[in-house]
Amino acid sequence: MSCYRYIVSFVLCWISYAGYAYNPTGTLPVVYLNTTDGAAITSKEEYVGGSLYIDPLNTGYEALGSETEPVSGQFKGRGNWTWSGFDKKPYRIKFDAKQKVLGMPKNKHWCLMAHADDNLGFLKNYVGYKLSEVIGLRWTPGTVPVELVLNGQYQGLYFLTEHVRVGSNRVDITEQEDSALDSVSGGWLVEIDNYYEEGNVTLREGNGQEVWVTMKSPEILSAQQRTYIEAQLNGLNNAIWGTDEADVWSRLDLDEAVKYYLVQELMEDCESYHGSCYLYKERDRNGTDEKWYFGPVWDFGNAYNRGWDTWMYDSPSFAQYWIGQLATWPAFQAKLQEVWWVFYHDQQSDIRTQITAFASLIEQAAQRDAQVWNGTSNYCNNSNMNAKRDDFLSKFNRRINWLYSQWGEGVQLNTESISRPTSDIRTRKVLHDGQLIIIRDNRTYDVTGRSLVDSQN
Predict the structure, then answer these.
(1) Is 168 domain-assigned?
(2) Which among 194, 225, 449, 454 is placed 20 to 30 Å from 123, CA to CA?
(3) Which of 281-285, 332-336, 421-425 comes out lowest in average pLDDT?
(4) Which of 285, 311, 341 is the last residue of a domain?
(5) Domain count across the chain
């Protein structure tokens, strides 16, 4: 009997450690993923078959499948460091048919993000995506917090996220077939990558730094396609490091470049132009090259990992390609003043409200997640969401305040704003008759600090 009790006790301890003793909190939708014959998901390259269903509980979302009629699909691992460096793994989902998932548009391709590397309450990617939406990038991946049960084993808090790929509801450009000889002019989706892969296009910046660009769509190129894309990317790289600003913005969309940059700078993401940095372009038309666009945003795992009082491209932890040079162009600086003004005056408060609400939404699941994974490889414990929320908000506010010390309030394009009362705004910048001016205590100055009243005497 004593031997039997010992065995039962051992099994129960092992089950508890493995996560079987934990159940979903009931505060978030639950994803039930079952592989065929319970096969383990051990590869980023090879899918395993299976099925999935989502119970929305009382969250207001629509169910996907059911326990008796799950949705069939394939599953594999994803990520680089997040896959190899953590026991809590992220996954890729490929449904057999397009599915609408948790209010997000139909697609076959989805991600279950673990965010085990997020030491700020699972808030880094959520806030980065919200900033992208608010500031107005063309497309931002949708993401919804869920709890995952994999082959009957509770896995904790995950984030079901739209995968970055070409599609009418995602990166909306013309998709060309791999190695298609008649569509060498695009559309194209590429990634500035921090991992060299066979087939990358290698560029060399004006400072001698190599830049690796991975083809995302199409992935396999014909000789004609490779000739085209190499010329495109080298042309853009040379323009950025050249002397003709007009050449830069004839190749690269200014608005999206500035909005993308502001999101990254607000997050102080020191790896933002080093890896997971996407660009895309539409098919060329009528013999005219279409511009490249930065985006969508992806992966803020290295946000707020350095000091708060420096540019993210200034002595970064990782090489920051292109952005240090792009930020020197006058048109970039002028557009940034406009976008910053809108964010500073109209958008930042709403972001703070959403941060607080999201932290409350995931609080119980974050606590349960820590019970399952705390003490495992490189895991960041986020069980105290109140403390993590406050820490994040402190960093977020400090970052905004430092950017304000550098940029002021930016430029409001409405010239009528000059006569607006300034009782609560002692210093601001506006654009007046094409000239950037500073208003301080109801007196006007040029950007060098010279009084415009004095200059007229």
Answers:
(1) no
(2) 194
(3) 421-425
(4) 341
(5) 3
* pTM as predicted: 0.86
Cα(233)–Cα(220) distance, rounded to whole angstroms? 17
**Amino acid residing at 63:** A
Residues 193 and 332 in one domain: yes
pLDDT recorded at residue 228: 92
359 neighbors 388 (Cβ within 8 angstroms): yes
Same domain, 155 and 244: no
Cβ 277 vs Cβ 245: under 8 Å: no
Residue 173 lies in a domain: no
pLDDT category of residue 426 using cuts at 50, 70 and 90: very low
Token pair of 73 as six digits: 């699909």
pLDDT above 80 for 344: yes
CA angle, corner 183, sides to 181 and 189, nearest 5? Answer: 120
**100 with 221, same domain?**
no
Residue 425 pLDDT grade (very low, low, confident, very high; cuts 50, 70, 90): very low
Give the pLDDT score at 20.
55
Q: Which residues contact 179 (CB under 8 A, 6 or more apart)?
A: 218, 220, 221, 222, 225
Domain that holds residue 371: 347-456
For 211, residues 6+ apart whose C-beta sits below 8 A from its C-beta are 192, 202, 203, 204, 205, 237, 321, 322
Residue 68 sits in the same domain as residue 206 = no
Do residue 156 and residue 32 come from a single domain? yes
Separation between Cα atoms, residue 447 and residue 428, nearest integer Å: 11
Q: Which pLDDT tens digit goes with each residue over 25-68?
A: 999 999 999 999 999 999 999 999 999 999 999 999 999 999 99
Asked whether residue 300 falls in the same domain as residue 439, the answer is no
CA 143 to CA 130: how far, in whole Å? 10
Question: What does the pLDDT read at residue 140?
Answer: 98
Last residue of a domain, one of 289, 308, 341: 341
In this prediction, residue 100 carries a pLDDT of 97
Q: CB of 187 within 8 A of CB of 282?
A: yes
